[in-house]
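Lecture notes, part 5. Sequence design as translation. It can be helpful to think of inverse folding as translation between two languages: the language of shapes and the language of residues. The source text, in structure tokens, appears below.
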């Protein structure tokens, strides 16, 4: 389908803030609120946090700039963008693999993402109904077990999240994504600040801070490093084309480095603030931070119940998490839907419906991972279906996507073309970025991958 120069078939963001909100909406999600704390718990606290932050700044930020730039130049879905760029730059069409692998990673991530997001809806509704009143630790655990133990309930909530996500995507870039994220993101920040204030007043604040920021270097090993890098990619939404497709809707006049820096800072801030809010609450409620994906839900319900005004704060918290998950799920679906529209000439509505159906079916694997297929006979090398999806997509496919994106942006595009597109006036800054993206980023991802997978 042909599109006039420098716009996209799907439209462009109407304002700079629209891109910001959409991209921050994509980045800030369950990765920051649910996964960051439990991965930190699993990997021993401060050391994990330190590696995560280093990966965010020295790998995530440069890759995000590259992804936005390639997207803005290609103006299409990631597959079509890479096809166009490869043609214009005289490179192999094989580079489309970035788009293909990204779509696959997107569907894999989304398949568990909507299920976890479904938990937040279930907790939100129970919180509004006052179900958690007078809960003790045993009741909090039993409530949690009852939810994940019931495939029917999980399917109900994962269906709700899938439909909500599809609904926004069907409405398109301006009326859907832009509109939703512009309203949802500011509310999320306001709620988060409220929660941090709350933790400072009523939680075990210092113990929480110590847990997050005291680095115990003996905890660092190749596996923790791989997880921290995977978490950086997952949390920033980079490596799979979500940010690339949002970049495709970014008008030329906005500064890419500035946009990327704002998005990365906001994402990092939310993860840290979430940790700062959460660990004091977890400690105050007597739970231990651990690797359990359900810990957050159990500990918080208990904590909220014991706090003055906890009903309201709890309700707001689950609303916040659901909103964050929703705006991220949207960006996971957009690359594949835009590809179907771009190159299969499908209507946005039918493309979205088809993709949502695929995601819904794949989501059943995660649903069953917590109940009927949770036993050891359903595990492969100690991981169930949900863990495999997450591990393969976040820790392997996103970083590999990151290597390919950085190699393309760094080596396969003429330097002047890249410099003009990325729009960095300052030559030193541009060369700094180029050096990172050519050498530091691909090499460090490669080494972390090899060590983490036990190959090196
Ligand atoms: N960044 C999102 C989060 O932190 C998840 C995500 C990953 C979204 C990859 C888009 C692409 O929850």
């Amino acid at each position: 389908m042909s599109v006039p120069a420098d716009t996209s078939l799907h439209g462009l963001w109407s304002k700079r803030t629209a891109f910001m909100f959409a991209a921050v909406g994509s980045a800030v999600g369950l990765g920051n609120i649910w996964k960051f704390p439990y991965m930190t718990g699993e990997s021993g606290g401060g050391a994990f946090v330190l590696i995560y932050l280093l990966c965010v700044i020295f790998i995530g930020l440069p890759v995000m700039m590259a992804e936005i730039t390639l997207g803005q130049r290609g103006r299409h879905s990631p597959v079509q963008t890479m096809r166009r760029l490869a043609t214009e730059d005289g490179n192999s069409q094989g580079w489309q693999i970035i788009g293909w692998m990204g779509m696959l990673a997107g569907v894999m991530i989304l398949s568990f993402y909507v299920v976890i997001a479904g938990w937040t809806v279930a907790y939100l509704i129970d919180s509004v109904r006052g179900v958690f009143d007078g809960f003790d630790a045993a009741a909090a655990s039993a409530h949690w077990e009852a939810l994940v133990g019931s495939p029917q309930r999980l399917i109900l909530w994962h269906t709700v999240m899938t439909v909500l996500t599809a609904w926004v995507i069907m409405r398109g870039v301006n009326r859907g994504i832009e509109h939703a994220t512009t309203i949802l993101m500011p509310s999320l920040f306001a709620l988060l600040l409220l929660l941090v204030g709350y933790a400072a007043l009523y939680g075990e604040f210092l113990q929480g801070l110590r847990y997050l920021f005291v680095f115990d270097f003996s905890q660092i090993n190749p596996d923790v490093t791989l997880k921290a890098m995977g978490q950086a990619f997952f949390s920033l939404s980079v490596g799979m084309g979500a940010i690339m497709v949002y970049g495709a809707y970014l008008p030329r006049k906005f500064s890419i480095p500035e946009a990327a820096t704002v998005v990365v800072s906001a994402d990092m801030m939310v993860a840290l603030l979430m940790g700062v809010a959460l660990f004091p609450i977890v400690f105050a409620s007597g739970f231990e931070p651990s690797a359990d994906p359900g810990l957050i839900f159990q500990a918080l319900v208990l904590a909220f119940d014991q706090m003055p005004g906890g009903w309201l704060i709890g309700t707001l918290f689950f609303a916040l998490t659901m909103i964050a998950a929703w705006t991220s799920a949207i960006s996971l679906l957009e690359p594949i839907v835009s590809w179907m529209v771009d190159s299969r000439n499908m209507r946005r509505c039918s493309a979205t419906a088809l993709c949502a159906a695929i995601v819904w079916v794949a989501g059943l694997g995660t649903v069953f991972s917590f109940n009927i297929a949770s036993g050891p006979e359903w595990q492969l090398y100690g991981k169930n279906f949900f863990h495999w999806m997450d591990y393969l997509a976040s820790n392997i496919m996103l970083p590999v996507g990151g290597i390919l994106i950085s190699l393309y942006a760094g080596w396969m595009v003429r330097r002047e073309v890249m410099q003009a597109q990325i729009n960095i006036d300052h030559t030193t800054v541009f060369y700094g970025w180029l050096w990172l993206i050519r050498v530091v980023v691909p090499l460090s991802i490669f080494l972390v991958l090899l060590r983490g997978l036990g190959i090196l």
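The translated text above is only one of many valid answers, since several sequences can fold into similar shapes. The first helix runs from residue 16 to 27.
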